[in-house]
Specification:
- The chain is an alpha/beta fold and 279 residues long.
- It has a single domain, classed as 3-Layer(aba) Sandwich (Rossmann fold), CATH 3.40.50.970.
- It has an 8-stranded mixed beta sheet, sandwiched between helices.
- The mean pLDDT is 95.
Length: 279
């Protein structure tokens, strides 16, 4: 068994039950690698999960403490835990694109507004793949899915100048990055920076879904076809990208690490001041 899985994951949860060719394991392993390279142990991290493919595959895999908040509620739970837990505990959440940018978006934005000390890793398979392959908030325009047999036409959160990263930055997030699971150490480095930021951090990672997305959009379930499709559309933030085509611009979008006061710190200071006034 893999060293990282042996060290950090529960044996009954490995190997993963994800579909053949799924890239979610790549996301999960990069996050474990980041935790390992930071020298964090099981007791240092409390791991939260959402719902869908990302939530189901990472739920209760961590050997340490876990919690789950389905349908976009993991962020509210995380805010409460941040108040209850010691400050040296790291809160890491693995969620899907629906959990982050759909049903959970409002809770996510409020955690960014408050600058809650937590790291959110959005594992994005470009739609609602756990329920059959419906289009979602990051599905490329024109792609055929179960719920868009003639191709998607609604604006999404990564095309036509509408980037969810801009919403999160405006809301107050202090670290934001986007990558694909096919990239290497640069993804791990962004995750390490996210975990080390005492504030709200989010790393958005696009990964291949062979069973549903590739089958509907590309007409094949061959992993290489899906992997090449993502790779051909991946650019660095400063690269010139083709107009009108769905591209994945990757890198660190915003790094204001440790520049805003963290939510629980501010709350404790406020509470202490009110207690002083009441004496």
């Amino acid at each position: 068994m893999d060293y990282l899985a042996t060290k950090y994951l529960r044996p009954r949860k490995t190997p993963s039950t994800a579909c053949s060719g799924c890239g979610l394991g790549q996301v999960h392993k990069k996050l474990l690698k980041a935790v390992d390279e930071l020298g964090l142990e099981l007791d240092d991290v409390v791991w939260g999960t959402g719902i869908g493919c990302a939530g189901r595959q990472t739920f209760a895999t961590w050997k340490g403490d876990n919690y789950a908040g389905t349908h976009g509620r993991v962020y509210a739970l995380s805010a409460g835990l941040r108040i209850a837990l010691p400050q040296d505990k790291r809160i890491i959440c693995t969620v899907g694109d629906g959990d982050a940018f759909g049903i959970g978006l409002l809770n996510l934005l409020h955690c960014a507004r408050r600058n809650v000390y937590m790291t959110v890793v959005v594992a994005d398979n470009l739609g609602y793949m756990s329920t059959g392959g419906q289009y979602g908030w990051t599905t490329p325009l024109g792609v055929k899915t179960d719920s868009s047999p003639y191709g998607t036409f609604e604006p999404n959160f990564m095309q036509e100048g509408q980037d969810v990263m801009n919403l999160l930055k405006g809301a107050g997030a202090t670290f934001l990055a986007r990558h694909t699971s096919l990239q290497g150490q640069e993804v791990v480095e962004s995750m390490k920076k996210a975990v080390m930021n005492k504030g709200f951090s989010l790393v958005h990672v696009i990964y291949p879904c062979v069973t549903n997305f590739s089958d509907r959009a590309l007409g094949t379930r061959k992993p290489l076809a899906m992997y090449n499709w993502i790779k051909s559309r991946t650019y660095n933030l400063n690269d010139k990208v083709p107009e009108g085509e769905m591209t994945f611009r990757t890198g660190i979008y915003w790094d204001a690490s440790n520049t805003r006061q963290e939510f629980s710190d501010k709350l404790f200071e406020y509470t202490k001041e009110q207690q002083r006034r009441a004496r």
